[in-house]
Amino acid sequence: MQRSILRLFVLIALLFSGCSSEKNTFLNRQFHNTTSRYNALFYAQNNLLELEKAIEKSHQEDYSQVLPIFFPIDSAIIDQNEELLTGIREFSSKAIEWHKISKWVDDSFFLLGMADYYDARFDDASNTFRYLNVNSKKKRIRHRSLIQLMRQFTDQKNFDDAAYVIDYLSKESGINKDNRFILYKNLAYYYDKRGEVNGKIGALDRALGLTKDKKEKSRINFILAQLYQREGLDALAYSYYQEALKGNPPYERSFFAQLFAQQVAELNKSKDVRKVRGYYDDLYKDSKNLDLRDVILYEKAIFELKQDNIEEAEDLLIKAAKEDGKNPVQKGYIYRKLAEISYDIKKDFRSTKFYLDSALTHIKQSDLIYNELTEQKGIFDNYVRQFDVISKNDSLISLSQLSPEEQELVAERFIKQEEERLIREAEENAKPKSTGIFENLLAFGGRGSGESFYFDNSVAMQQGSIDFYRIWGNRTLEDNWRRNVQGFQTTDRSGNQTSNEVRADENGDSSEEENPILAQIPDKESLLAQIPKTPAAINALKEELEIAYFEMGKLLFFDFKEPKMSIEYLEGLITSYPNSNKKAEAYYILFLANQESGGNEKLYAERLNREFPESPFTFSVNNPDGIKGNQAFLESSKLYKDAYDLYYQREYVGARSVIRNTLENFPLTKNTEKLLLLDIMISGKIDDKERYKGRLENYIQVTENQDLVKMARNMLLALTGDDVKEEQKTDQLIAKDEDTEETPVLGEIEEEDEEDSPYRENPNQTHIFVIALEPEKAKDAKNLLADLEAFHMQNFASARLRTGNMNLSREEAIFIVSPFSNAEKALDYRNKFMNSFNSASIEDSDKENCFLISIENFQELNRRKNLNEYRQFYNKVYK
Hints:
By secondary structure, the chain is mostly helical. The protein is 67% helix and 3% strand.
């Protein structure tokens, strides 16, 4: 017994002697390894897991969009869990400081880096991961640090550095299974951020085979199913949706997996419409789907749209908007679809605007469709603004032409219509909204929706309020109304007190409480006050109306692509306001709109030539095939300099000849307004003063460049004698270019243009191959996509190339082949295409016009819509 006790004391003594964090002995290492792992490191890891669970729990999945690879990090959630981050840092620091010789020091450093990453201290996190990559002796930690560094680069869209890490890891050996799984997830995330669907699918496929976590597998399978469904590969999508149902996923994901699987397998192909409708109705009735009824109605509405049942689809969407859904963003999709129906089918642009307003109230700035809807809303806001001005001002001007008695009758009729509307709304709101057993029992007891008691009957209350208002006006509500003695007070029809004694509450505010029902009924006096009474007020309304007619016509043609509706408003402008300073531009838009809709465009070309022979719009109409884009700007800049040199040498006739020829050959460039002003300056030298003055006044009215307008005003002041020195100043100013201090010579312009090119050379970026055709030719090229697919199967079977087509502008349609990982591979494809591709849909000249473009430059081209401009860059860089 004594020997056992002695041994125990010796063992304890040895343990205490081995607790030093510096002494590197076997016993000491074992002690620090065990203590570090199961104390400080254990708690730090648990805090990190708890933080990641909080991020996951706070995320609301949006199944209408492809699910994100990683759950988005919400800064608000990070702030709420600051204690967890503090715990990670404290425990990791203790594991490092107290157990310096343990084998878990590098793991602790990694946890510190993760804490900095989640706290958005990206520089500190990056330094930690880089340090571990260089100094850690553990492959596991080095690889994990590089993978996390890759994710951080992807978050920040630093794709070049992310690609460098990917390339480095691809050459590394000994990456363990857990790290390979995380690597492929991050690779999918990288491709997702770059918009490369094929790469994303491939990476997720690889990740799927590297995890045994059933929940993780279910979510990845669901994402893959969504991607395949969007690529039109329904069979693959169905298979992956079925796989997503395994692993006991959350009910919501299970619901969407079943719903979307039915869509790709049966609903889209079924000819039994009643069966499909019954399927949606059964889902709606299922009590487990109570929080998903808005989704079910939305999907059923999409199905009805495919059957061209527009009214039924619209009714279903309105019903869906009233359901209490689980995901707020779903309401945004519902209202967006209603907006699409109003815009694309009904051409009701006013309703479209209000549906977009409703959609944006349910969509956050971080949601994918926010920017798209905001941009659309701006256009429709402008439409409604112009529409309201036209409606209101037209009505007020018409009313101003009536006699006072007729105006009163119109006002009274309007008030009566408003009263009837309010009663109709009350009747609608009073309709029973439930036929449940409790509602029915209450009805039998006299407490149902069909009330006879006055204060429970909303229709009677509404009618009573309106009748009281009609007879007595908006009287003040008062306590102790039976008292005999009251201060002398009267209330007029509009509810204004006229007594010398106005009651107030303790805070000094009026005790009057406005009835919300009566607030909706305008009084006759306020209606009549809006009608203009003086010529000045009527003219102000007409000026607003003139601008609104022009803006509406312009908006309908350029933004809504509705030439016929545009013609209606612009012709109304010209008829009602024949002296409008927007007339030349209105003629030009009418020319384009008639040209597009098959109307009489020659009529407006003739009017432009007759009424505005020197307008840039006239030059454009007379020279439709002139050189466009940068080339036109370069040539016109050179000729502008030549004209100015001639003007400065007092060779006015020669200068005018150069200007007129330039405007004929290069209409509507950046130099057009400068050329016109220089031509007016020549007019001041060789024409009579009245013509010179008239041209200056017209130029000031129609020119948008404010610097040039200021110059023209100076010239007008000099002409009228107010400042005789201004013309000399203007002569000096007009020689200056808009973008540079002085008008450059051609060589300088070309160099400057090259520097300012919107396109950038990037041979390592993903590229696209583009076939550009005229719209009419594109319509006839029905078999082109099929021919391309056959060409790819024969020559690029393993490349997973995709094809598609779109309208770049009204003048060009493009067919796209993608993706190519870099310019070299795209060039190889082009060479093979030029030598081996044959199709009856395109000619050799069309093949010659094909080109390559990087993803970044394609986005710029899609924004600028100028193929000629890009071709100049392409010919220089790729040829």
